[in-house]
Design a protein that fits this description.
The chain has helices at residues 2-14, 25-32, 62-67, 83-95, 110-119, 129-137, 141-163, 171-184, 246-265, 272-285, and strands spanning 19-22, 44-48, 54-58, 74-77, 100-103, 124-127, 195-198, 218-224, 227-228, 231-232, 235-241, 297-299, 306-310, 323-326, 329-332, 336-339, 342-347, 350-353, 363-364. The protein is 36% helix and 22% strand. The chain has 2 domains: 2-136, Creatine Amidinohydrolase, Chain A, domain 1, CATH 3.40.350.10; 138-364, Creatine Amidinohydrolase, CATH 3.90.230. Strands 4-3-2-1-5-6 form a 6-stranded mixed beta sheet, with helices on both faces. It has a 4-stranded mixed beta sheet with strand order 7-8-11-19. By secondary structure, the chain is of the alpha+beta class. A hairpin with a 2-residue loop joins strand 17 and strand 18 (350-353). The radius of gyration is 23 Å and the shape is elongated.
C-alpha cells in the first residue's frame, strides 16, 4: 500500500497539487486495504504532496479500519457531526487553504463538490481520475492471484447454475441455487446482481431474472461474478436446453468465433480497438452486426467495470498486466440472446483467460 501512495504522491509533486481527497470506496481500498460501503456517509483518504495521509470514516468503523493494518491517523466522526467540515479542518491544519486540491470528480456528487468549493473558496480543484486509472491499470502479482481465485469461483458458479437447468425451473430459482452454493464456499459478495435469463429474455444484455421458466428450445444465459478479497470476476456462458435450431446454432458459433478471435490477437502493443473491431467484423459478416449492441469489454479489478473500455474507438495499447473482459454478444429482440465472456490478462505470450469454463455449446437434455 505504501508504494501505491508513494506513486500517487509523486504525481502530486509533479503537478504541484497540495493535497488529494480520495472518496470512492474502491480507491480508498486500493490505497488502504480498508473496504467499506459507507452508503450516504463520507469515507475518504486525504493525501498530501508532503507528509502522512489520513483516513476519515464513520466512528463505528474506526476499529475495522485499524484492523486492516492502516498505520496512519484515522479520524472517526459521529452521525451528528459535519463530516465535510471535519475533513476540511484536518486538511487546513496541514496545508492551510491550499492552492490546488485533486478530487475524484467522476465520483463526488454535486452537493459535496459544491460544499468543498465553498469550504476552500480560493482553491482550484483538479481531477485525479486519470492518474488513479493509470495506477490501477497494471495489476501486480498479488492482485493477479486474487483475480485468479475470483475467476475460479466464477467458473464453479457457472457449473452450479447449469446443474439447475431443467424444465420448469425459474430464473430466480437458479440464481438462488448459485448464490447459496457460493455462500457455502465463503463468498460474501457478488460482483453484481447475478443474471440468469432464459428464452427470449436472453436477448436483453442486462435483463432482470424473474419467474420465467426454462423450457425446451431455450438458450439459458448466465452472467455473474464474485468478489474475492476485494477483487472481482465476471463471466458469461450461454447453454441450450433441448438442442438448438439451425439459426440458434449459427448465432452461438458466430459469437464463439468472435470471442476466440479477439482473445487470440490480444498481446502487448496491440491497440485495444483492434480486439473490438476483430470481433465486431466477424459478427457483422455473419449478418448480425446490428445485434451486437455494446463494447467488447471493460477493465476488471477492484471494480467490476473499470478503466479501460475495450471499444472500437479506443487506441490505448495493451500492456502486460492489464486485466479486462472479452464478451461479444448477439441479441435478436424477442428471439435469441447469446453472450460469451471471459476475464483475460495480457502477458508476454498474449491474452490468457482467467475464467476457464468450457465455451463449446453445452446442450442440456
Amino acid at each position: 500500500m505504501f508504494k501505491r501512495m508513494e506513486t500517487f504522491q509523486q504525481w502530486l509533486n509533479q503537478e504541484n497539487i497540495d493535497a488529494a481527497i480520495i472518496t470512492s470506496k474502491e480507491n480508498v481500498f486500493y490505497f488502504s486495504g480498508f473496504y467499506s460501503d459507507p452508503h450516504e456517509r463520507l469515507l475518504a483518504i486525504a493525501m498530501f504532496e508532503g507528509g502522512e495521509p489520513f483516513l476519515i470514516c464513520p466512528q463505528m468503523e474506526t476499529n475495522a479500519a485499524k484492523d486492516t493494518g492502516w498505520t496512519y491517523p484515522i479520524i472517526g466522526y459521529k452521525d451528528t457531526d459535519d463530516s465535510l467540515q471535519i475533513l476540511t479542518d484536518e486538511i487546513k491544519k496541514r496545508i492551510g487553504n491550499g492552492k490546488t486540491i485533486a478530487v475524484e470528480k467522476n465520483h463526488l456528487n454535486a452537493f459535496r463538490y459544491e460544499s468543498l468549493q465553498r469550504l476552500f473558496p480560493n482553491t482550484q480543484f483538479k481531477n485525479a481520475e486519470r492518474q488513479l486509472n493509470e495506477q490501477r491499470l497494471i495489476k501486480d502479482e498479488r492482485e493477479i492471484q486474487k483475480l485468479e481465485k475470483a475467476a475460479e469461483l466464477a467458473d464453479y458458479a457457472i457449473q452450479v447454475g447449469i446443474n439447475e437447468v431443467r424444465e420448469g425451473a425459474t430464473e430466480l430459482q437458479i440464481v438462488a441455487a448459485i448464490e447459496y452454493e457460493l455462500k457455502k464456499k465463503g463468498v460474501q459478495q457478488m460482483s453484481f446482481s447475478t443474471i440468469v435469463l432464459t428464452g427470449e429474455k436472453a436477448a436483453s444484455p442486462h435483463g432482470t431474472p424473474g419467474l420465467t421458466k426454462v423450457k425446451k428450445g431455450d438458450f439459458v444465459l448466465f452472467d455473474l461474478g464474485v468478489v474475492y478479497e476485494g477483487y472481482c470476476s465476471d463471466i458469461t456462458r450461454t447453454v441450450h436446453y433441448g438442442g438448438p435450431s439451425e439459426k440458434q446454432a449459427k448465432v452461438y458459433e458466430t459469437v464463439l468465433r468472435a470471442q476466440q478471435t479477439a482473445l487470440s490477437i490480444g498481446r502487448p502493443g496491440i491497440p485495444s480497438k483492434e480486439l473490438d473491431l476483430a470481433a465486431r467484423t466477424i459478427i457483422a459478416e455473419a449478418g448480425y452486426g446490428d445485434y451486437f449492441t455494446h463494447r467488447l469489454g471493460h477493465g476488471l479489478g477492484i471494480s467490476v467495470h473499470e478503466f479501460p473500455s475495450i471499444t472500437e474507438t479506443n487506441p490505448l495499447p495493451l500492456e502486460k498486466g492489464m486485466v479486462f473482459t472479452i464478451e461479444p454478444g448477439i441479441y435478436i429482440p424477442n428471439e435469441i440472446g447469446v453472450r460469451i465472456e471471459d476475464d483475460v490478462i495480457i502477458t508476454d505470450k498474449g491474452a490468457v483467460s482467467l475464467t476457464r469454463f468450457p465455451k463449446q455449446l453445452q446442450v442440456i437434455s
